[in-house]
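> call design_seq(struct)
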């Protein structure tokens, strides 16, 4: 008898986690995993400490902080939400996404995803027996082609997954693009699962708009989000979903079966976090924008092609220099071994076969200024070293 399930047999360790782990073990600068290496804001740390001191240490009822969260989301998303029925608190967006998929996907249901995209979606969909169907975003600007999108929907399509601002590209879907997605969901009677973890990290004049705010979409959208990125607390594992009543109720039941409840003291601190002054969100946005600009300058300076400036998120998806003969995986190997820096090979985010997919590297810039400066220096040295070895080999060839 097979001991592992057929789905489990197809899973491998997360490449990003493995690279990150390698960085932690070997003192390599970690621009791989999207977690900040700087402290969380003091006001929310104090709130978490106070919650533990006040003995918020036991299982929390599934209702948790739903009431207060509803008030906040009503304001930020302009949605009419019933706190008793339309919210599920989960362990991070990751669990909220899994619960959403388990709540609506049956064996054989197709789920449309954009390509490239964040790595965890596909695994959850396959665990539920669903079939991922990818629609390529067109480089260099990761443009949504409405014809390709329409063609990806079939009679078996149950849902589309939308992550905006997007990991890994940094794309923020425009109002026009969202209207196209909304229209096809309405016509095809499909659900949308949105991942809005970077909702507060947008740059220049780009604004995050939730798909649920489009006509007829609140009743067919499951919004998932979390504290992780907005408050630099990826380890606290507080996330949530906002969904139509019958789906939210199913998700709450699933959440109880998967993890019972999200960490009690951090739910208390979540309220403090979400009630932060507007200045907090503005300074987060400004800090990340300047980190983005810094990394663009560093990478462009050593020949990387940055044809698309991230409009949001904390990632820069950069194309290898024209004269670099290496694939993304080979480059990362060299980056780790010779420069002591780790980032993520872009090919892990692509699912369709295309020639350009081995040319991208994802750099996380949610790091302190000193980490980014140290990485910049090492990237510069590696680039000089590569140039010298290229010149020497050309001279030898001649
Ligand atoms: C697009 C996206 N969604 C979700 C997550 C994970 O969120 P959480 O920590 O809330 O599970 C990440 C983490 O990198 C991410 O990039």
């Amino acid at each position: 008898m097979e001991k592992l399930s057929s789905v489990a047999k197809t899973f491998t360790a997360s490449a990003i986690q493995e690279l990150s782990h390698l960085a932690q073990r070997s003192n390599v600068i970690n621009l791989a995993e999207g977690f900040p290496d700087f402290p969380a804001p003091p006001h929310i740390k104090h709130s978490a400490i106070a919650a533990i001191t006040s003995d918020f240490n036991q299982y929390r009822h599934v209702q948790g902080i739903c009431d207060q969260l509803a008030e906040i989301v009503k304001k930020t998303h302009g949605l009419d939400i019933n706190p008793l029925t339309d919210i599920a608190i989960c362990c991070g967006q990751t669990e909220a996404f899994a619960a959403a998929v388990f709540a609506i996907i049956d064996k054989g249901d197709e789920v449309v995803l954009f390509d490239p995209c964040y790595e965890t979606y596909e695994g959850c969909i396959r665990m539920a027996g669903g079939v991922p169907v990818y629609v390529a975003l067109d480089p260099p600007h990761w443009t949504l082609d409405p014809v390709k999108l329409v063609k990806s929907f079939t009679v078996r399509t149950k849902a589309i997954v939308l992550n905006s601002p997007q990991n890994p590209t940094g794309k923020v879907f425009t109002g026009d693009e969202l209207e196209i997605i909304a229209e096809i969901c309405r016509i095809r009677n499909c659900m949308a699962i949105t991942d809005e973890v970077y909702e507060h990290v947008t740059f220049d004049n780009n604004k995050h708009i939730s798909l649920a705010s489009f006509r007829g979409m609140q009743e067919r959208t499951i919004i998932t989000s979390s504290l992780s990125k907005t408050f630099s607390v990826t380890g606290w594992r507080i996330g949530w979903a906002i969904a139509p009543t019958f789906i939210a109720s199913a998700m709450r039941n699933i959440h109880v079966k998967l993890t019972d409840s999200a960490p009690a003291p951090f739910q208390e601190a979540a309220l403090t976090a979400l009630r932060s002054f507007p200045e907090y969100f503005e300074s987060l946005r400004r800090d990340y924008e300047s980190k983005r600009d810094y990394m663009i300058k560093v990478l462009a300076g050593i020949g990387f092609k940055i044809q698309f400036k991230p409009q949001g998120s904390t990632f820069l998806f950069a194309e290898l220099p024209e004269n670099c003969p290496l694939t993304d995986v080979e480059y990362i190997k060299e980056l780790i071994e010779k420069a002591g820096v780790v980032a993520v090979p872009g090919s892990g985010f692509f699912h369709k076969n295309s020639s350009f997919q081995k040319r991208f590297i994802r750099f996380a810039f949610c790091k302190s200024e000193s980490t980014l400066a140290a990485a910049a220096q090492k990237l510069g040295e590696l680039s000089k070293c590569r140039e010298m070895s290229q010149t020497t080999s050309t001279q030898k060839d001649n």
